[in-house]
Amino acid sequence: MRNRILEISEVPARLRIERRQLVIESEPRSERIPLEDVAVLVVAHPQVSYTQAVLAELAASGGTFVTCDRSRMPIGILLPLDGNSIQNERFRHQLELSKPRQKQAWKQIIKAKVHMQATLLEIRLQTDAGLRPLISQIRSGDPSNIEGRAARKYWTALFGSDFRRDRDAADHNRLLNYGYAILRAATARAIVAAGLHPSLGLHHHNKYNAYCLADDLMEPYRPIVDRAVAELVDDYDETPEMNQEVRACLLRSLLSSFLISQQQRSLFNALSRTASSLVSIIQGNSDQLELPEDFAHAPA
């Protein structure tokens, strides 16, 4: 199934592999989970030990391993190295993708992102805060930075005029950072499974960033995290602490469904569709990315 996100953050544990199952030994009980069900494994507690077999077997089954720092924020990702049987050919095509086609793909991504942002505002506030008129202004490569203009309207509407998107701030941004980090890992996993290299971006280009393409393709999916954070803020008088309950809520948000190509899909399936559609563009078989069109439903 490969649709579970597991986080180990609250108690010490020992991880091992037995009969193609991930065994999590902790107090007061142990748990066994088929490896094929694990999409992302997040290890946040400093007293978690695991064998080499855990990392090797998880990667072999297509899962992603995320490790966290002392504050339980994600800092590292382990992805499968051999994600597709013809990945060498796809790497070559990826490198050869022309700039005009990269810019056209980026235009589609930003249009989908602003559309999803507007949809979220309409769900929560019954207004798009002026975002929808901006969508028609997005051109190839977004040279006018409509993405940035939309972001200013979006964050103000979603969290108030005092909010600024700042990765180092200790407010709502901390919750967004956590959710985005797990979303990034899931996106990188879909990219590798499609036979593409996650560092070869369409728009993001940074020699110190190993996940430029993941940062590109995750853009229209970010509002699923934004929605979860906004709902958490609704439930508290101030920004909640990053405790187990809050992290669990953020992880559950990533089990939500999207409408993509007019079909309801899980996040993991939708990301796979997006990555596969990029392969079609790279191979010259299509000009269209498959991107989220609407929220479907949140998990119970």
TrEMBL record:
Its cofactor is Mg(2+); Mn(2+). GO terms for molecular function: DNA binding; DNA endonuclease activity; hydrolase activity; metal ion binding. Coiled coil: none annotated. One of its GO terms (biological process) is defense response to virus. Mn(2+) binds at E147, H204, E219. InterPro entries: Cas1, CRISPR-assoc_Cas1, CRISPR-assoc_Cas1_C, CRISPR-assoc_Cas1_NMENI. It is an enzyme of class 3 (hydrolase). Keywords: Antiviral defense, DNA-binding, Endonuclease, Hydrolase, Magnesium, Manganese, Metal-binding, Nuclease. Belongs to the CRISPR-associated endonuclease Cas1 family. CRISPR (clustered regularly interspaced short palindromic repeat), is an adaptive immune system that provides protection against mobile genetic elements (viruses, transposable elements and conjugative plasmids). CRISPR clusters contain spacers, sequences complementary to antecedent mobile elements, and target invading nucleic acids. CRISPR clusters are transcribed and processed into CRISPR RNA (crRNA). Acts as a dsDNA endonuclease. Involved in the integration of spacer DNA into the CRISPR cassette. This is CRISPR-associated endonuclease Cas1. It comes from Rubinisphaera italica. The lineage of its organism: Bacteria, Pseudomonadati, Planctomycetota, Planctomycetia, Planctomycetales. The gene is cas1_2.
